[in-house]
Design a protein that fits this description.
about 45% strand, elongated, four-stranded antiparallel β-sheet, about 0% helix, mainly beta
Amino acid sequence: MKKLHLTALLAVSLSMGCAAIPSMLSPSSKGQVVANGHAVLRLQPLWQGGGYAAQAEVKSDQDAVHHLEVALFTLGENNQELAVVGMDNQPLSKTIGRADLGQPITFGNLKLKTTYRVKATAFDAASQVISHPCVIDVPVDMDDRPTVQKLAISLLDKIFNGSGTSSVAINAGNLLHSGEATVSLELPPNVTTYYTGATQSLGVAMTEFGGLFFIAGNSLYALKNNQLTRKTFAYGEPVTSLTLTHQKKQPGFTEFEETLYAGTTSTSAIHWNYSSISLGGTSSSDGSVPIAVATYFLQPSDQFPAKFYLDKTTMAVRKGSTRITALNAFNNPSTMVIDAAGNFYVADTGNNVIKTFNINATDSIRVIGSGFSGPQGVAVDKDGNVWVADTGNHAIKMIEAVSGKTITFAGGTQGNKDGRGKKAQFNAPSGLNFDASGSLWVADYGNNSIRKIEVK
């Protein structure tokens, strides 16, 4: 999502404006002074900013403001801020509600020949700050009438995501004519449909060779140059997950191999090593009753990955035949991935959650993210963010690595539509995988299609 910055400026009636210093409604020390004079300071709010950069004339969006907080201070030695308090020893501050945002703000009982510092901050209905820091110093020199000062409050610019129009006046030399031109800005969709013949696909992967692989039913499909190749799994078991790994063939060698791991619902986990788009390669079966397969390479030189299985029967994770989590640690899980640090991530579909644990602390399974409904796909990007195919909510979500917050990156409405962010529509998305360039590929189960998401 791109941010466009406000480039148009509104006129400020006075040269004394809002300085870009931190907005704090409390003094920097515990000092205070009592307002026991006879002078009056009257502030008139002047709203500006808060529009979209795509507009030629940026207008203030005062409707976004729920309330304004204004506090008064004086300056002591070394510009130390001293809170101004009333005769009741309470801070002389005001909270201005939405209905009174255009009305003057008056502070009384102030002392003459004193400079007062005014700090103002605007908040939305969720009590989130939506204005730039506003600090002005006002000398109060009159007691026969109020000292009047404009209080310029600059709202934060909004993130622009969509389309907008801008009117441009045309002046052609001395010709006596004018007109208007309309300039449209439409950000391109970051969710596009790549292939529409993937009937009820549950998993997808794009290789370095430009070949698209996806699974549907009991088959693995490869698509390149509009040529579709199909390989049916042994035993005819349905396939539920598809993961793709990249690793050097041997220590000291520069060439890489890509390995596909496909988990089935019953008898085997099959993997292919290949050096081209062909499905010829070699394949083998490992273990029993896995529904997902993931690999972990011990860094920096281990050429052979450890294979881990998400076991359908025991609802647990195992390495080979050895179980590394408790029985029934999950409820009808769908997929599992492992990042470079050895962190496991499991789409615990039946519990509507994503669970994680580390390879060195398998007894400490915890839930991350929130708000999922039957999630079936999970992937991790290079920055450690966890991406989820939130199947029941028809959305692609991201659990931020740093904050742990869950955000809806794309979709959220059932349908079949390319678009940007929440304007895109999915129908029960299932599997997802990143390619080497950082694009995210999604198996859109209900739409029988493969979707591509540019996440940068």
